[in-house]
Design goal:
The protein is elongated, with a radius of gyration of 18 Å. Helices cover about 40% and strands about 25% of the residues. It has seven helices and ten strands. With about 200 residues, it is α+β, with helices and mostly antiparallel strands. α3 crosses α4 and α6 packs across α7.
């Protein structure tokens, strides 16, 4: 989202993390903005029983940590590397300095925050009003339209069944059973345990 050269000019450093490594934890003080160069990062909460509530997945050229930097508070979520990843890490004051000097970037971040909020409202309504097949179908449609979490070359869904369960609040067994039924109805394809979306989309 922010040009790499600009981040480095303002003091960003390169940080490499392994899968499962935590960038920041819920209730920790907000101190940095992170932008991905490679890999993926999960934005989640964890319940008392250890269950993960997945909010979104951050991909290459996307950032995390900015919401609480803007809010000057503590993180309300945790950020965990989903795979080995490389990031640029910049301090909160320098990030704010970039925003003050680049109104176009500030607008971009505002639009991104608004888009994330719309998705959360959409997901809340979806979970409250529809059956498992409709939830899965509409989520995949959104991912496909955004060009995220669905491979644009092979049409493979880039989320595991467990991650879909963590995102929707459904049991993973429900996700598996529903996807198998959808495959029988030719609404998606399951090949060697991986889920693929038909080339003409999912209805």
């Amino acid at each position: 989202m922010i040009p790499i050269e600009l981040l480095i000019e303002k003091g960003a450093i390169i940080k490499k993390v392994e899968a499962g490594e935590v960038l920041f934890q819920e209730n920790s003080l907000s101190s940095h903005y992170y932008q991905l160069l490679t890999g993926r990062v999960r934005i989640s909460n964890f319940l008392a029983d250890g269950k993960e509530v997945l909010h979104k997945i951050i991909g290459v050229n996307e950032g995390c940590g900015h919401v609480c930097v803007f809010g000057d508070g503590v993180h309300v979520v945790s950020a965990i590397a989903d795979v080995p990843s490389t990031l640029l890490k910049i301090s909160a004051p320098h990030f704010i300095e970039i925003m003050k000097e680049n109104s176009d970037l500030l607008i971009l971040f505002t639009q991104k925050i608004a888009k994330d909020l719309r998705f959360k409202l959409f997901l809340t309504k979806l979970i409250c009003n529809h059956c498992p097949e409709e939830i899965i179908t509409k989520l995949i449609q959104i991912f496909n339209e955004d060009g995220k979490l669905v491979c644009q070359e092979c049409n493979r869904l880039m989320l595991t069944r467990q991650q879909l369960a963590n995102m929707t609040g459904m049991r993973v067994e429900t996700i598996i059973r529903t996807m198998k039924q959808m495959a029988r109805e030719n609404k998606l394809n399951i090949i060697k345990g991986k889920v693929f979306i038909p080339a003409d989309g999912i209805d």
